[in-house]
What does this fold into?
Amino acid sequence: MTISGPLTGGRHGRPFGRPLVDLDQVGYREDEWIIEGDATRYRPVSGTELGFDGVWEAEPAGTARFRTRIVAYRPVDPDQFNGTAILSWNNVTAGYDLFGGESPEILENGFAYVGVTVQKVGIDGLPGLDQGLRSWDPERYGDLSHPGDDYSFDIFTQAANAVRGGEVLGDLDVRKVVAMGGSQSAGRLATYVNAIHPLTKAFDGYLLTIWFGSGTPLEVGDTVVNINTTPTPDQAVSWKDALRGRNQLRSLEVPVFVVNSELEAMACLNVRQPDTDTFRYWEAAGTCHVSVQGMELRQPKYRRDFGTELPIAPGINRIPMMPLYDAAIHHLQSWITGGAAPPVQPRIEFDADGEIVRDEHGIAVRGIRLPQAEVPIATDSAIPLAEDIYSILYGSSVPFSAEKQRELYGDVDTYVARFEEAARAAEKAGVLLPRDVPALVEEARSSFGA
It folds into this structure.
């Protein structure tokens, strides 16, 4: 493996997907690097299978050349660094490299964040969308190459080794490296936990968000996930069937943390496993895979990078998961450095038929109670407005009438007082951080009566 850079130039003169935050203002810098070499692909050990219990055995099955990019955000002042680098398995379900790195918890608490273009779609894009790195800036990224997603696990390991070895984060003293990925990337990380971590020991902890309860196969060949392709009738499989959990996560010597919305809670019902000294599982009532706030957060970056608007469907879920992710990162930092583990949280209640139990407002019972679910002015849930894959991921938000809102709360001040009380209860439970409460209260004030 070799590292070269920092990368400069190109048609746009900047990395794809860079934060909207002014990193200079928060004492951070951005560098983009090329990482290349020979990557190993893996297969199940002969006579074994990728079974329900997650105890998977893998072995090397060949190598191929790769050349990809990583983007690093790090504190300029080494004294500001908290010692932990978060390695993002960039998500490519949308057809381009999607990653974060600018959340308040990361920037205010001194994490380093490294986004890795791990999968082939990140470079090549999906057919017809033309949003991969090579198309976006052929001058900067034209010589990137990816042999296929079977090699992604080792590419991710090599990126972790580069981060830990100092080639990427300069003079920072990296003491812990955490792997983080959501949605499709969480499925890839689940396989990494179950089959690859025992071979590499490359990470000190894992954070899987909005995970559907299944690891991806070790061997997929040239197949890529394309949710824009409708399954044919003869496949006899719906998206709901495809998103049903099939395996648990292996017990490791390092922490594994899963943070799910109501949608993935349904998928994970049959693979639920108990919280332990090295495993935590959170699921939040009233939430879904995607929220309108999350889409609005992506909108300006999408507009900047692609010059067009990101479509935001009406009526989608309105309880954001982002504050939960920041709380999870906060707890995980304590956990991996010898402090307290994340608090155990109640799980959503299901009936004997595997359906979510809902209250008189249509809100899921139990689970993590964010204030929008505890003091509702709408029925927010993972119930889709249609049967297509996007509707399933978007869930729904059905506002209460103005009359019902007044019947429940009287006036806006009473509602906001109760909302803030619920937000402080969520803060006390450890699922909201203090910095997030004021913004949520202001959003609640502006939403009442709408």
Summary: Residues 95 and 126 are 5 Å apart (CA to CA). The mean pLDDT is 95. Residues 291-450 form one domain. The two ends are 56 Å apart (CA to CA).
